[in-house]
Amino acid sequence: MSFLNVLDKGYVRLVNHMGSDLTVVNAARVSYAKESDELNEKDIKLIKFLAREGHTSPFRHVLVQFEIYAPLMVARQWWKYVIGSAHFEGTGDSFEAWNESSRRYITEEPTFYIPASGEWRSKPENSKQGSGEILDETVGMKLTSELLEYIDSGIQKYEAALNNGVCAEQARLFLPAYGMYVRWYWTASLQSVCHFLNQRLEHDAQKEIQDYAKAILELIKPLYPHSIDELIELG
């Protein structure tokens, strides 16, 4: 499996990967000029030890590449992990790469995330961020309808600007931004991916990015089962 649908129109696609649990083991054992040919119980114990004691550099020898299609509000939360990866991994250099499609260069039909009437959430009672319970569906129907009207108006103005000869990089100003789907490639070490998952699988993470985190986990769990078991803190 290399593709999972997320939200109403989004997806995560596993494009490529390098390494395995054995890669982690051998990256650690090279300190003693040793190497395993096949993963065995001793190797699995080593993975447990590395994760438990915070010896994380061997997990950075495994790389995973995804194509992601998500609303801009999800993409901008995600982007923080690329910015912070150099500090997090303590290397002075980033172990992540991000390349995103740009409406400076493309004019494909805009696509937007539109919550269904039963998906609108209330604000939380005791926090300035996050969300609470699902709103009454009557309210949700009104919100979905209003959002559709707002998006339609923006698209009409965007297309009119293009037809009037406005460059794509300025015409996009008419598009409602946060719900618009964007597409990007994300390449990261296994350590970075698991750091992202540990934070975005938490119950208090925004639901939309939780859904993407669950898809990422489902795609990589079969590739690195022992490392994932030790690096992901599933509550």
Automatic annotation (TrEMBL):
<protein>
    <recommendedName>
        <fullName>FAD-dependent thymidylate synthase</fullName>
        <ecNumber>2.1.1.148</ecNumber>
    </recommendedName>
</protein>
<dbReference type="InterPro" id="IPR036098">
    <property type="entry name" value="Thymidylate_synthase_ThyX_sf"/>
</dbReference>
<dbReference type="Pfam" id="PF02511">
    <property type="entry name" value="Thy1"/>
</dbReference>
<dbReference type="GO" id="GO:0070402">
    <property type="term" value="F:NADPH binding"/>
</dbReference>
<dbReference type="GO" id="GO:0050660">
    <property type="term" value="F:flavin adenine dinucleotide binding"/>
</dbReference>
<dbReference type="GO" id="GO:0006231">
    <property type="term" value="P:dTMP biosynthetic process"/>
</dbReference>
<dbReference type="GO" id="GO:0004799">
    <property type="term" value="F:thymidylate synthase activity"/>
</dbReference>
<dbReference type="InterPro" id="IPR003669">
    <property type="entry name" value="Thymidylate_synthase_ThyX"/>
</dbReference>
<dbReference type="GO" id="GO:0050797">
    <property type="term" value="F:thymidylate synthase (FAD) activity"/>
</dbReference>
